[in-house]
Amino acid sequence: MQLTRRAMIKDGLLAVSAGMIMPSIFARAVRAASNAAREGSHWAQAAQGKTLIVVQMAGGNDGLNTIVPYTDSAYYQARPTLAIQQPNVLALNDRLGMHSALKALQPLWQQNKLAVVEGVGYPNPNLSHFVSMDIWQTLDLNGAAAGQGWLGKYVSGLVDQDGHPFQSLAVGTTLPTALRALNADVPVVADPKTYRLQPDPTAQTQLSAAEARIQTLLKLYNTYPRSAPYAALLDATAQSAVQGSKQLESVASAYTPAVQYPQTNFAKGLQVLAEVIAQGLGLRVGYVTLGGFDTHAAQADTQTKLLTEMAEGLVAFYSDLQAHNVADDVVVMTWSEFGRRVEENGNQGTDHGTSAPLFVLGNAVQGGIYGEPPDLTRLDNAGNLVFTTDFRSIYATMLDRWLGAPSAAVLGGSFDDQGFLPASA
Amino acid sequence: MSDNRPRGSSGDDAWGNGASMPRFEDQSTIPLGHASHGSGQGPDSYWQPPQAPQPVLPAAPAATQAGPRGVSRRKVLVGAGAGMLGIGALGAGLGVFLANRASGPADVFTHDAGQIAHILRRAGFGPSPSDIGDYLNLGVQGTIDRLINYSSVPNDNLDKRISALNLDLTNLDDLIRSWALRMVYTQRPLEEKMTLFWHGVLTSSILKIGGKKGYPLMAQQNQLLRAHAMGRFDDLIHAVSTDPAMLRWLDGNRSTGRNPNENYARELMELFTLGVTNSAGQPNYTQNDVHQGALALTGWRIQNSKGVYSPAQHYNGSVTFLGHTGNFGLNDVVRLVCAHPSTGYHIAWRMWSFFVSENPSASDLKPVADAYYHSNHSISAMIKAMFASPAFLSAQAYRSRVKSPVEFIAGAVRGLGLDTELKGVSLAFQQMGQVPFDPPNVSGWDGDKVSASWVSTGAWMTRVNLINLLLAGASGITVKGGAQARGSANTANSALQRLITARQVSTPHAVADYFIAALADNQLGADRRAMLYDAVSQRATGPSFALAGNATVPAASVRNTLYLLMSMPEYQMN
Asked: What is the pTM for the complete model shown?
């Protein structure tokens, strides 16, 4: 295995981890990543130039009103006020139609670049947002939320890291659980323009003095005693931040968006990802979150607004990538921690549910409907859908067919491929 | 845990008359031994050297505490590096020898000062320059007592400061500033820290309670959390269950007997009281409990910004909730969830993770949970039990949690003694990943539980850039507004000059030493201290600070030193 700087960070972390006070989540992560690093170098070079963008729809998006089973009488019986009537859906086939707020995605569907996977969930569903989010992100079906996220595990297995600080990137200010990686150097960027250390504004600072100050600061991180809690995390974060900011600065003026992005935070986040992709910074995994889907009451307006925001943002992003000739190398997938109760709740809202459809889109995607339709007449004890498609089969498809990593090594088991990407992407 | 670890002073009599005494030559700053973790040694080498036996307090009656108490006779030693690196026992191979320092009004170099600074960071937002001297007079236990019994501490100056600004609570920036200012300038640090704690547990957010009508409701909830912060837990839960912002946030205001809404009932059990599972990993409640609890909680509406009971909306019938059956209403639900055997542990776990250290053991939590059940659910009893635990002042706790953005910003402004209106502070909060009144979701901030969540590359740069701006005395602390400070008078300079003058230091190194003591407990390895000496010794053009004895030091060099000090890992940790 190639010994990289980050590998050394790992080893350093491992060396001091025994018995020190480190939250057990990181102690376990150290072991897991150490194993992954030993076994995993073979997935390093497999997927050059391919990028996965993950869109988290936080709060539990109502799947039944996103991909509407518009011929199913059980749907209309369960939702006297919330059901979307047939004339208002954007038909995908003779059974399913999209919420009209997703109109911006319709051309991608018509061009066969949009896939819908039905009935996605996991066994023994947990109706807690937080347990369910942890299950989706850490693959621990008990939701114990220890260790790395599934994307973090993938990123940790990449060996060719040096020189590519932006092989993964989360938009925002905090690292999503899915990207929690042992290396701890996944960049988190809110705005590329402010992603840098500023010089002393009151001094007549020479450039060299500003740089010397940064180097001293990094040395203070590098020499912080490794046995102190979070020492390795802090050091890796500081080094990654400075390294990444320099790379961003060096290419800053070379990107201009080819389209007008909507004025939403979600779209602005996608634009950050587009910039990094268009600049060829080696992005493999990008992550952006759109929140607010927890629609216990007055759902219709909220969901319409959010789905519009999502669809219009994604289409702007896709068009921008097309214009920069990089769309062939980017696939987007969405997910939400659960769908919502089949029966509406009397407040024109829906309570926590289970399985739901998700979207995959991109030029490489083989558009269509995948998974199996859930049965609205055979619900579980809480009145929720029984899932038909294991969420890990989506991940397996992405890993095996797009990211070039053996899915079993990341997922800890084998899952069926869904057909939304060709076998030899 | 060694239970007999000395705790230092118990009160005003600690120094005889409570007066500050010159204490340099015979005081030690105790190296913080991070080294012994897992080596099988006792964990508590940090606060007291083993060779300096001290009275165990506060059990001993006051009369026996006269004379020297928790004070080592050794010379002032600095440099935890040796201990941290595990290359020797305490006292051997330690760093810089710092005897013969001029004494000043706040003995930030003493051992007790380090303990008190740690306590103030955890039970508040860190010391202001004058805090250390004030709290030193009380001693360690006296400090804890004063922090807990805050209702008797006058806070008039804070109220005057804030009312003078005429803040508009229908404006989001002003709403956030009004609370941030409290954290920075309060004389009751634990009051604000408890309010922040409860805000992270019993969440509501401007995401849903926004706009000119919503923000004042968030301010009202904030005041509710403050008022009930240390009282009986049942009262807090009852109050928050009928709080207008909470009724809207979790849809209680729409829930009726015919159409019960599950939202509040679920989060009340999952997040606010019981937790998902008990200590054996078994679920604490079922989906049916959620549904039946929702029925019992129906009937609350918002009128004139108050939660009022509306019997017509209440479910009138029998429900079975957590194993009990009856025609239940809010009072019954509150009683049952607060008396549940998991609630004391769940809240103790949240408290411990927030105030002491992450991933507490069952034995850590037991005294705190016991205090809850033995005191008829008193929150202050829990806090007292937690602060009395040896673990609170242990090496494991010391610098073990990453400062939250709120702790970082309030602590830095407070620590430098800056006089500011905190304009623009909400943007800094946002870029660091924690906006008060805007928790990311109903479970609050992940960082309150696992503080590593506060660390990200972007958030880290924002922290460093904020320090840069604070030191430049930017008007307000808008992170992106670096340009506005250029060429203007640096108001931070006058604050720093005041501190330097008060300390009567005469050399650049002594300036660095003072700030290392005041801002980093004097706990810094020799190699790292040397880097700060280098920084403070740099020549620079521009204004200078006057030192004692007609010496000067370039302001830019002091700023640079503080930039490094407040950006370095030690300062990121709480």
From this structure: 0.84
